[in-house]
Amino acid sequence: MGFFKKLKTGLSKTKENLFGRINKVVKGFSKVDEDLMEELEEILISADVGVVTTMEIMDELRDHIKTKKIKDPEKVPVELMEILKGLLTEKKYIDKPEQEKPNVILITGVNGAGKTTSIGKISRLMTERGKKVMIAAGDTFRAAAIEQLEIWAKRAKADFIHQREGSDPAAVIYDAIMAAKARNADYLICDTAGRLHNKKNLMMEMNKIFRVIMKELPDSRVETLLVIDATTGQNAVNQAEEFSRSIGVDGIILTKLDGTAKGGIIFSIYKQLNIPVKYIGVGEQIDDLEDFDEEMFVNALFESE
Amino acid sequence: MAVFEGLSTKLQDIVKKLKGKARVTEKDLKEVMRDIRMALLEADVNYKVVKEFTNTVTERALGSDVLESLTPGQQVIKIVNEEMTSLLGGTVSKLTYSPKPPTVYMLVGLQGAGKTTACGKLSNLLRKDGKKPLMVACDIYRPAAIKQLQVVGKQLDIPVYAEEDNKNAVNIANNAIKYAQKGGFDTVLVDTAGRLHVNEELMQELQDIKSKVKPMEVLLVVDAMTGQDAVNVAQSFSEEVGIDGVILTKLDGDTRGGAALTVKSVTGKPIKFASVGEKLNDIEPFYPDRMASRILGMGDVLSLIEKAQESFDEQKALELEKKIRAKGFDLNDFLDQMEEMKKMGPLDQLLGMIPGMNAKALQGLSVDEKKLDRIKAIIRSMTMKERSNPNIIDASRKKRIASGSGTGVQDVNRLLKDFEQINKMMKMMNQKGKKGFKGMKNMQFPF
Ligand SMILES: Nc1nc2c(ncn2[C@@H]2O[C@H](COP(=O)(O)OP(=O)(O)OP(=O)(O)O)[C@@H](O)[C@H]2O)c(=O)[nH]1
Ligand SMILES: [Mg+2]
To answer: Can you list the positions of beta strands (E) in B271-386?
Structure first.
């Protein structure tokens, strides 16, 4: 069981684990020295924080130790966690104000990141709040992508708009916009085909979809969300950068946090690109989606398996 | 691309760092290993694997004569590359067939790794190899997963075995084998549901399928973009299910793919295929040497080093150094040097292989091979005496040399001036002591 799943089953146990790990880290350290720093560095590296970002964070930690005159090794991991939490809360995701209906959520990401599943989960979140949700099958490329999404739409009790496999995704989205307007939907959630961010024509296609939405719904709130698999390493930064260039990513959905991957790559994304995480995915069921909680996320980095 | 350039520059810096050194110390080596460690971490190789790796390389570097070498930077990188290539498997590893068909393959891995697509690609490959494959849809969990494999099957015109209403994957797999035996299929590919390595129930399901269908090979499908967690994934699948090979997917992206090294070193099993696109023929054998260069981000720095080494005989270089110490550098040596350069191939192409040297920068810098030939012609038109003692070249000699080489007196003058400058540089270096010949590799040639 991964950390977030555990969270659901009992916070107390998590706390134990958390401080268990910290105690393990500082155990054997009677003073604040380079060995301790190295140990902490290793925790960050093994969480995919990345070398450069880790070194920046460690430098900051060293500064804090100096200025706050920290002598107790046990205080050091706590200080590190404060730095990390600060980094995330400072750039927290803020919902844009709602405007004219429909609110649009455009979902993107590389192949297999968890886009379609996340759409199912988000739709359910909205329909549970009594909203009228419409889902658009913008992935017209992958085999059975439309069928997969349709099942999620049913589960979430959302309307479903699709065309045939192989049709132009921008045209599908255009149709869906018209339908959403006609049926007065509160939300239009658009799936797109998984694509690697270094493929020029596919990124142009993505941009075209985005432009159709902006043109047809200039007075609507349009959120662009990038789905990133928490298992991803340093390449996630490239993903965020390229998708941002194409459609201006507002927020991230960090999926598969129910495994052992920590998703530490988001620190680099926050630092370099200022793109915050909005949701996290913690399983394959429809309610396995949660708002991103900075505090919990940082705690999880220090939790042992 | 930013990452790419950064890493290339790092490696180039390593070469530079060690290049001008008369003696490379253990401390230098340590520093270099630190850079390599960073490069590997940045490429997503697991930090524990990195540690082991740099230790191995350090040991080998200390044990060999790298430190005595004329080109320690290049030597270290060569060792890094060799070690990495061999760690990645050395050579291409092929799929094995059972002597008793049907040969069964099982594809396993995390969610979203690319199993279903890989299943289609592999079947396609097998068919090209004259086999008659059957694909089996055992992902009974993900919505429309069965349908996905069926669509892939239809696209390829390869049969798919599925039982839409059966909720028992072990059972489906077992029935599929019987079906294959009856239907004369000689290869069976079982596509399983993506699962987390920490999901005990689903890991058990894989064990059950495996013991039922007795696959020739269990292939772990790994996303090339995977980060540090690859170590846990590989370990769990390897220990709990047992794997025989790996398929690395999404290599058409711009990830460095350090997970390849992690997975190989954790499981000890060969990476057999690289999946490089969304089309059903986008699959290739896995080449360890190419992957090593990719992880290191070296561009073609290795082929450059190799070329340089092939054509640059260290022994000869040592002789030259001795000679220079004793008598100084003459035009014969200059000519030799130019021959060495020439052997490495067209200069602009050579420069293009240096990482960090981008195409734009090269545009303004066209290396004039004709000019090089002209210089050679001029030197060849000199007598041996003139070559070893250029001071004797007076106006009439210049005229003779110019007409002999089909050039002008100005050209001869320019060459002599350039040579004089180089000679000065050489002397300066000699005075600085042992720097000697190593420094000469930094020398600017007058073209
Ligand atoms: N464990 C876990 N699995 C997830 C999560 N989100 C998605 N998945 C699984 O990941 C796999 C891929 O999910 P999809 O939603 O199909 O991903 P996608 O990005 O739409 O994939 P493509 O459209 O093929 O690019 C499926 O097996 C999902 O069940 C999560 O948060 N945790
Ligand atoms: Mg999808």
So the answer is: 271-275, 283-285
Q: Is residue B93 included in any domain, yes or no?
A: no
The answer to whether residue B358 neighbours chain A at the CB level (below 8 Å) is no
Which residues, chain by chain, have CB under 5 Å from ion ligand 2? A 115-116
Burial of A219 (0-12, 13-18, 19+ CB in 10 A): exposed
- Is B355:B295 a contact under the CB 8 Å cutoff? no
C-alpha to C-alpha distance for B370 and B412, rounded to whole angstroms: 15
pLDDT band at residue B32 using 50, 70 and 90 as cut-offs: confident
**Averaged over B67-83, what is the pLDDT?**
76
CA distance A4 to A283: 9
The domain boundary, picked from B259, B279, B295, lies at B295
Domains and CATH numbers, chain A: 3-90 (1.20.120.140), 103-302 (3.40.50.300)
CA A249 – CA A245 distance, rounded (Å): 8
Share of chain A above pLDDT 90, in %: 85
Q: Are residues B170 and B311 in the same domain?
A: no
Residues found in chain A: 305
Mind listing the pLDDT tens digit for each residue in A86-103?
A: 999 999 999 999 999 999
Tokens for B28, please give them.
């230098």
Residues of the domain holding B242: 103-295
Tens of pLDDT along B391-416? Answer: 899 999 999 999 988 889 998 998 88
Instruction: Indicate whether B203 and B306 sit together in one domain.
Output: no
For ligand 1, atom 26: residue with the closest CA? B111
Burial of A240 (0-12, 13-18, 19+ CB in 10 A): buried
Residues B326, B362 within the same domain: yes
Which of A54, A234, A257 to probe the B interface (max B CBs under 10 A)? A234
Q: Which pTM does this prediction carry?
A: 0.80
Closest CA relative to residue B250, chosen from B143, B367, B113? B113
B95 within a domain of the structure (yes/no): no
Residue type, B354: I
Q: What is the mean pLDDT of residues A112-131?
A: 97
- The residue type found at B138 is C
Nearest to A148 among B42, B144, B278 (CB): B144
Q: Which of B184, B183, B182, B180 is nearest to B214 (CA)?
A: B180
Whether B94 is covered by a domain: the verdict is: no
